[in-house]
Structures are given as C-alpha cells and as structure tokens.
Design goal:
Elements lengths: L2 H4 L15 E3 L2 E4 L8 E7 L4 E5 L5 E5 L23 E5 L2 E6 L7 E5 L3 E9 L2 E4 L2 E10 L2 E16 L2 E8 L5 E7 L2 E5 L5 E9 L2 E3 L3 E3 L4 E5 L7 E5 L3 E5 L4 E9 L2 E5 L2
Parallel strand pairs: 3-7, 3-9, 4-8, 4-10, 9-11, 10-12, 11-12, 12-13, 12-14, 13-15, 14-22, 15-23, 16-22, 17-23
Antiparallel strand pairs: 1-2, 2-5, 5-8, 6-7, 16-21, 18-21, 19-20
Length: 265
C-alpha cells in the first residue's frame, strides 16, 4: 500500500502557514505564529470525547485520546494505533478550527496555552477542560461536562449529562450560563464572587454556600382561553437573587436535577 493510500483517512488543512511542525496520524502541532493576542480554538465532533488541557508551550497540539498504545495485552500482543480519520485542522489569524466527524471512543486531547478561548461541540461525548483563562463555550448533546480551574467566563450546556464547573476567577461584566435537561449543575466559585442569580429547576433542590439575597417571585399573566377572556395569574418557579450584593449575570437551568453553588476554599 502506498503512503498516500495509507493516509487517505487523514485530512489536514492548515491555512496561513506552510506546514505544521509535527503531523502524524495521531498528532497535529499548530505553531504559534501571532502572539499579539490569545488563541481561539473551535472544536467539533459528532462522536467522541473532547479533553482540553493547558501546558507551558505556545503551540496547540491535537492528539487522539488513546492511552497505553504500547501496553501488551493479556496474550502478549501490542496495540497498533489507527490514525484519526477525517481530522481537519485549519488555522487563520490565531483562530484554530478542529473538526473530526468520528473521533471514536478515545476522542481527542487538545493541549493549549493557558490564555486560550474555547468553543467545543460534541453530539455524543464528554467535554473536559482544565486550567484555561478565556471565554469558554461548550455544548454536548449526550455527555457530562467537567470544567476545572477556569478563569474568565463560561457558557456550558448538556442535554443529558452533569455540568460540573470550578472557577478560579470570573471576568467582570461577562455573564455566566449553565444548563442541562437531565443532570445536576454543580458550580464552585471564588468567595468574593458577585452576581445577579437566576436559577430554574423543575425537579430538583437548590443549595448554596453563599448567602443569597432573594428577590420576589415573578407573577406571569396568561389568557386562560375561556370565552369570557379572563386571565390566569401563576407564580413562575424561578429563583432570583443577589450574591455578595450583585454583579455579573449568573443563569442556571436544569429540568431534572439539583443545583449546587459552592464557595471555593
């Protein structure tokens, strides 16, 4: 089999520079060409986990998520890695777009500088991020979201899965939003965190380490559809309040699951 045929499953498009420093079937390194502003990484996959971690380098490194590739099996056989088929990496003015329609069970591991903003999408798979400072926007249809030691601002949404987020610092003036349909939302925030809080959960309790100054319930007026045109008034099941006197907008929504707002120690 010719090398061209052997690599036909790997599509690598790197724009705005000649070639990546290191490209194999399991690893793509995107050099840092412009250090005047932070990187932005957009990553999407139809099937597979996405893991983002920080390191001290300046490049963005995309790898498959398999581990122990050379570990012997019980019968003494060794595993041979299969290249990430369908992988596409495009860089344009510090914006790196990564697409992998079928990342598989191992998913992708992306190593980035600390000062990086992220936009991550997976239809079926977990999303895990650790240590970044920037704007983090993540969504998965089926899978848990775990964001650890984040500084900046976060929007995280899972239709079926838990959302667990720990923030070291929150950028002032930028809203935070967390939601899931089936699963809990568990947030850990700095002790001096100030916010205007909105929480809605249809089937679950809400717990907080912070003292929350609650606002009044909101009355919603609706037509009841009767011939006489009467209106119905109901009380919306939304908690609104202020943490540490109010500040950035914090919105939390879950249909089936509890909400935990913890104070970072």
């Amino acid at each position: 089999m010719t090398p061209r045929l052997a690599l036909c499953g790997l599509i690598l498009a790197v724009c705005a520079f000649a070639a990546p420093q290191d490209t194999t079937g399991n690893r793509v390194v995107v050099p840092a060409r412009n250090t005047s502003h932070p990187r932005v990484v957009n990553c999407s996959t139809s099937n597979g986990n996405i893991t983002v971690k920080t390191y001290s380098g300046a490049e963005v490194i995309v790898e498959d998520g398999s581990t122990g590739a050379n570990r012997p099996a019980a019968n003494g056989m060794k595993r041979i890695r299969v290249p990430m088929r369908g992988l596409e990496v495009v860089e344009d003015d510090n914006v790196i777009t990564i697409r992998n329609p079928a990342a598989g069970n191992n998913g992708m591991v992306i190593s980035v500088p600390v000062e990086t903003s992220l936009r991550l999408r997976s239809l079926s798979g977990e999303i895990r991020v650790n240590g970044v400072h920037g704007e983090v926007d993540v969504h998965t249809l089926n899978g848990n979201i775990t964001l650890t030691n984040i500084s900046g601002t976060v929007s995280a949404d899972s239709q079926n899965g838990e959302v667990r987020v720990t923030m070291d610092r929150v950028d002032a003036g930028k809203p935070l939003a967390f939601s899931t349909f089936n699963g809990l939302v568990d947030l850990t925030l700095p002790p001096d965190f100030k916010s205007n809080l909105t929480v809605k959960t249809n089937h679950g309790a809400v717990f907080s380490d912070f003292d929350v100054m609650l606002g009044g319930a909101t009355a919603v007026t609706q037509k009841n559809g009767s011939p006489d045109g009467r209106f119905r008034i109901r009380i919306d099941n939304v908690i609104r309040g202020a943490i540490n006197g109010g500040g950035v907008d914090l919105t939390i929504r879950t249909f089936n699951g509890g909400v935990y707002i913890r104070k970072k120690k």
